[in-house]
Structures are given as structure tokens and as C-alpha cells.
């Protein structure tokens, strides 16, 4: 077997473009997932009938593969008269999928805050919404940050599944060039290296953010 990685140089700009689209999908997907997950978490810990909707959403999404969800959005929704392009379908699929996991992350963070803080805030005249916004959620976010970072990394890697619905992200770009040049090992290895580079940089950024938040907490504690 003769491997020639020099062929990657010619196609590297296109692969980097695909990597940029991968990052864009992950960022938009996780942003939508955070909003959806926060709403689902608040509904799940509420004492209203709406909590059953959150329970059902989390159960359904966590119990089915992301690939199936992407197929339902991209190929299934048009049968109901809802047509989305590959990019919108990818962001929606990644957001809905990550939102179910993020909901549990937020729920765990919120429930980790001692109930006495909520009672003290209410006794001071703060309403439930104000208490959640100013007292509970900022602390819950610090607790949830490591898990949110992990979910971001997972979404970044999961974006490769969007290639099956014709999304020209990093993996599909690599597949296209591999089929044309018959250099499968070279292109898939290059794609793996780019994914590894992106996740490594993202992990470093997240560790730095966690360290800063931890330092701020220690400073305030002093």
C-alpha cells in the first residue's frame, strides 16, 4: 500500500472550508440546544402539567438515534408540507438532540443548589422568576459548565452525521474527494486529524473558562 498524503495539500482549502461549516453547525446547534434544554429543564422541575411534555421530549430524543432524527426532519417533514434545506435540517436536528441532554444537565445543576437559597430569596420579597434569574441559575450554570462543554464537543463530532443529508461539512467533503482520487486512507486520516484538532482546541478553551470561573469563586470565597 502506497500512501501519498501530499495529495491532501491540493484539497486542503476545501477541507478547511468544510471544517468551518462543521464548526458553524455545532455552534448554532448547541446554541439552539441550550435554549431548548433550559426551557425543558424548567418545565421538568415545575409543578405544572407542562412537565409531562418535557419528560416526553427528553425520553423520546434520548431514546432514538440522531441519524434517525435527521432523516425524519430532512426526508419526513416534506411529506407534511414542511420543507427545510440541508443546513436548516442539520441545525434543527443537532439542536433538538443536544437539547434533551442539556435539559438534564441544567436540571441537575439547578437541583444541586440548596433549597434554602430559594427560600431565603423568597422571604426577602424576590419572586420566583427573579430568584431563578439572579440567584439560582448563575450558580447552576457554573455547575453545569463542564457537562455543557462535553456536549459541545459531542455535537461537533455528531455533525459528521449531517453528511447523510447532503450537508457539505468536513466528512462529506472528505468523502467526495476520496471517491474522486481513490485516496480514501489519506482523506479520512486528514479528516480525523482536523476533527481531533478542533476538539482539542475546544477542550483547551473550555478548561481555561472553567479555571477562570473556579478562580473567581475562590477569590469571592476569600
Automatic annotation (TrEMBL):
Q: Which family does it belong to?
A: Belongs to the binding-protein-dependent transport system permease family.
Q: Does the keyword Transport apply?
A: yes
Q: Does the keyword Zinc apply?
A: no
Subcellular location field: Cell membrane
For this protein, the record's NCBIfam families field holds: HEQRo_perm_3TM
Give the membrane topology: Multi-pass membrane protein
**ABC transmembrane type-1 domain span:** 19-206
Indicate the transmembrane segments per the record: 20-43, 55-77, 187-206
Signal peptide (residue range) = none
Q: Which GO terms describe its biological process?
A: amino acid transport
Q: What is this protein called?
A: ABC-type amino acid transport system, permease component
One GO MF term:
transmembrane transporter activity
Amino acid at each position: 500500500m502506497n500512501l501519498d498524503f501530499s495529495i491532501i495539500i491540493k484539497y486542503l482549502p476545501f477541507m478547511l472550508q468544510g471544517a468551518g461549516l462543521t464548526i458553524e453547525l455545532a455552534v448554532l446547534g448547541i446554541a439552539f440546544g441550550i435554549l431548548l434544554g433550559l426551557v425543558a429543564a424548567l418545565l421538568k422541575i415545575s409543578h405544572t402539567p407542562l412537565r409531562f411534555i418535557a419528560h416526553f421530549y427528553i425520553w423520546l430524543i434520548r431514546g432514538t438515534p440522531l441519524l434517525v432524527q435527521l432523516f425524519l426532519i430532512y426526508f419526513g417533514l416534506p411529506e407534511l408540507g414542511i420543507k427545510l434545506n440541508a443546513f436548516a435540517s442539520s441545525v434543527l436536528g443537532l439542536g433538538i438532540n443536544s437539547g434533551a441532554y442539556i435539559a438534564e444537565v441544567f436540571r441537575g445543576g439547578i437541583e444541586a443548589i440548596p433549597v434554602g437559597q430559594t427560600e431565603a430569596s423568597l422571604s426577602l420579597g424576590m419572586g420566583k422568576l427573579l430568584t431563578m434569574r439572579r440567584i439560582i441559575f448563575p450558580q447552576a450554570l457554573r455547575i453545569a459548565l463542564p457537562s455543557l462543554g462535553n456536549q459541545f464537543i459531542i455535537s461537533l463530532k455528531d455533525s459528521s452525521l449531517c453528511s447523510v443529508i447532503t450537508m457539505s461539512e468536513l466528512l462529506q467533503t472528505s468523502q467526495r474527494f476520496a471517491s474522486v482520487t481513490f485516496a480514501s486512507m489519506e482523506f479520512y486520516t486528514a479528516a480525523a486529524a482536523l476533527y481531533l484538532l478542533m476538539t482539542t482546541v475546544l477542550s483547551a478553551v473550555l478548561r481555561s473558562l472553567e479555571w477562570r470561573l473556579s478562580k473567581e469563586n475562590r477569590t469571592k470565597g476569600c
